[in-house]
Amino acid sequence: MKPIIEIKNISKKYKINHEKGGYVTLREELTKIFRNPFVFLRKKIKQATGIEKREEFWALKNINFEVTKGEVVGIIGKNGSGKSTLLKIISQITPPTTGEIKINGTVGSLLEVGTGFHPELTGRENIFLNGAIIGMKKRDIVEKFDEIVKFAGIEKFLDTPVKYYSSGMYVRLAFSVASQMQTDILIIDEVLAVGDIDFQRKCLGKMEDIAKNQGRTILFVSHNLSAVKKLCKRSFLLEKGKIITSGETEKVLDAYLSGRSFDINGFSDLLKNDLRKDSKEDSVFKFDKIEIKNSEDKISGHVKLYEPFNIIINGHNDKLCKDFSLAFDIKSSVGVTMFNSISDSCDLITTNIPGTKKFAIKFSENYLPPGTYTIGISANGKEVLDWIPNAISFSVDPISKDSKVLSDKFDGVITHPHKWVSLN
Amino acid sequence: MSSQHVTIIKPKKIFSFADLKEIWEYRELLYFFAWRDFKVRYKQTAIGALWAIFQPFITMVVFSLFFGGLLKVPSDGVPYPIFVYTGLLFWQFFSSTLSDISNILITNQAIITKVYFPRLMLPISSVVTKILDFVIASIILVGMMIYYHYTPHLFGFILIPLFLLMTFMISVGLGLFLASINVKYRDVRYVLPFFIQLLMFVTPVIYPASIAGKYSWILAFNPLMGIIQSARASLLGTTVLNWNLVGLSFLATFILILIGIYTFKKTERYFADII
């Protein structure tokens, strides 16, 4: 199938001004000339001849990807990784420095809800104005008007200027208008970060509806990782303007959260310092490696439902550690801590003697539902001795230890063991 | 859903006729922008749209009192209020359009950095509201003529659209040019009111061009002089209508709007980056 969006080699360069941000005044430029005419002249000549260049900043570098029709693609990355710049280029707000994008269809972008709302105009008037600004035709707005008002729940205040609206009402109205965009491609940036929980859920539902039932193509940027996971099959991870990982959302999210991409093989070396957080270099205890062993005592990154498994931690201490304890947590692929545990210091008395150490965390049964998880470990004395937030990842496969496949209708945060019994 | 709709985004786009087509496609937005400006302007005012009449009317009264009455500025044999008002009509259209367009990208910054649409829609919609103001203000002129039992030359009414077009070209041309500069250098915001004020004194709005005597040709460098002089000549018969002057002014204003559009289009794509 022909892709609906083809992005070829897109890069975007910004020139940064070190003196100050924002705009320049002509006066400043002029005073600079008069104060040091020769310095100014030399600088200009250097700039013109290309000897001296203004500092450049590449917000995006060689971005290539394609999106097929009907796909919902997530774009994730830290602040400043270039996500918004990419969306701005695709929505034609700013041009790319190099490269080309071919789009086979109409594009609607929702970079901010309520763009162009005028505080003096009433809700009714703003529906029309905002609709027109985001590219809707008047007859579409008229047709969808009731639906917009109902979704926003502002029937009573339709003829009140929006400046008297509560911020919640304002945002609800804005989202309702935007959700009626009828373009082939929808570009959405962080819109779910608005409104109360109820409304966020409603928005997410609406977006799911758009994505799944209307078969439209969506590019979705969000820091709400569970929303990304829920909506997008495929995702891209941007870092410093480059796509560093792409593919199945689950894997990309995992790479994003752990800050590195793991091979899920049940084994991870922990010697590098950049894995650590808040740990001193000359700390008396250090982790060396971590392993996951399945019920057959084999190293494996895959654990079945209800299967027993062990986490084996290796470390070493050069000196005696007092009040020593270990802790771990298990995070889901959207960053939710599933549970954590802190060891009792008396259980780990072996640390009274310096040397290499080996510990195990034993799970008699795995209640975690299918998905990818990341383990963080820490060692503590009077203060933090060693802390590795993303030590290893493992995946729970949707198969139980007796080889039953879990229903794809499964939903929830744990798979509690249970039985169905008929009582009559 | 249109599947034939193909957009290609490239680093640089040269001005093309596709742009005109695009403006046509977005014509509804033009309407909404103009509608917004009109709606918003007199919100929370007690007398509302009457301001559109009051402002030029009171300016005319004050000018007539001081310049016509006390200073005895000549008015080529026409009642001074009618004389000055004809000039003010064009002058106000020019100055309000110019200052509006020069700041239009800044005032609509929030939209420009978030949504794509042909940026030219903003200045065009702004002119639409100004033309409406012009029409409303013209009604007063008719009223004044009735009040003074003054019979204008009907031929002049036919020419008004031409002079309006010329004023449109000069104000939009200059406005687009300044708007493009304003995106980077906010100095425009401070220079402009000052520039408009000065320009008013070198334009024969409150006095006839003939006041400069044999040096009046210098005034003709200002295309606005040609417009106002010719409008008075054709409507009020103050002087003989000089077609050469009209032609020259037309040419000048036409060049100005071309420069304006060229500058605007050239910098348009980068507005969102530097604004």
Describe this structure in words.
The complex is a heterodimer of chains A (424) and B (275). Chain A has a six-stranded mixed beta sheet with strand order 5-6-7-3-8-9, sandwiched between helices. In chain A, strands 12-18-17-14-15 form a five-stranded mixed beta sheet, with helices on one face. By secondary structure, chain A is of the alpha/beta class. In chain A, α7 links the parallel β6 and β7. Chain A is globular and about 70 Å long. In chain A, α4 crosses α6 (167-178). Chain A has three domains: 17-54, no CATH class; 63-258, Rossmann fold, CATH 3.40.50; 267-400, Coagulation Factor XIII, Chain A, domain 1, CATH 2.70.50. The N and C termini of chain A lie far apart (55 Å). Chain A has nine helices and 18 strands. Chain A has helices spanning 26-35, 37-49, 83-90, 123-133, 138-152, 167-178, 197-213, 225-231, 249-258, and strands spanning 3-15, 56-68, 72-77, 98-104, 107-110, 185-189, 217-221, 234-239, 242-248, 267-269, 285-293, 302-305, 309-317, 325-332, 337-342, 355-363, 371-380, 384-400. Chain B has 275 residues and is mostly helical. Chain B has one domain. In chain B, α4 runs parallel beside α8, α4 (80-102) runs antiparallel to α11 (223-236) and α8 (154-184) packs antiparallel against α11. The longest helix of chain B is centred in the middle third of the chain and has 31 residues, at 154-184. Chain B is globular. Chain B starts with 5 loop residues before the first strand and ends with a helix. The chains are: A alpha/beta (424), B mainly alpha (275). Chains A and B meet through α3, β4 and α4 of A and β1, α2, α6 and α13 of B. β4 (98-104) of chain A pairs antiparallel with β1 (6-9) of chain B.
